[in-house]
Amino acid sequence: MKKTLLLSALLPALLGHADAVGVKLRPQGELLTRTVQAALAELSTKDLPVTLDTASGSTLTLGGVGVSAAPFNPDVAARVVTVGGERRIEFNPQGPLPLAEAVRAELQRELGLKAWTAAAAAARFGGADLNGDGAVDLSDLALLMENLGKTGTLTGDLNQDRRVDDADLKLFSRQYTLP
């Protein structure tokens, strides 16, 4: 009980509250950057702003680049390729969807959203109930801490940047309350 009280008092103070969910993507070019920013703005709320963080993450391109410059299937709006360990999402410039729709559809899949809505983003990015028991508690923190510092698709990756780090701890601390 003392540990629970101490942790609940210290965690927000040590980590601060999450100001925003920074979606880590690296769009190439002004048009794609603006399109991604506009799409993410649709997910934002006052309580949980969703912003673009270009420091790391998958590279987004309009068309194929370099060795992946093979022609697109005309029925495909986007494709995911890995070249030299770099994950890229390439959008078909002559695809079946307008660019804004293609970006929303592909990012919905990439981010694991059930729908392209602010409510779906809040549930996904704010979903600190990691064990699905209906409560955000120390068992959820234990699951997050088990993967802290690891990369990949992991339990505890609350901001969906494919790593469990301090950003995920900040999101968790925002939802954790005393029992």
TrEMBL record:
<dbReference type="InterPro" id="IPR018247">
    <property type="entry name" value="EF_Hand_1_Ca_BS"/>
</dbReference>
<dbReference type="Pfam" id="PF00404">
    <property type="entry name" value="Dockerin_1"/>
</dbReference>
<keyword id="KW-0732">Signal</keyword>
<protein>
    <recommendedName>
        <fullName>EF-hand domain-containing protein</fullName>
    </recommendedName>
</protein>
<feature type="signal peptide">
    <location>
        <begin position="1"/>
        <end position="18"/>
    </location>
</feature>
<dbReference type="GO" id="GO:0000272">
    <property type="term" value="P:polysaccharide catabolic process"/>
</dbReference>
<dbReference type="InterPro" id="IPR002105">
    <property type="entry name" value="Dockerin_1_rpt"/>
</dbReference>
<dbReference type="InterPro" id="IPR036439">
    <property type="entry name" value="Dockerin_dom_sf"/>
</dbReference>
<dbReference type="GO" id="GO:0004553">
    <property type="term" value="F:hydrolase activity, hydrolyzing O-glycosyl compounds"/>
</dbReference>
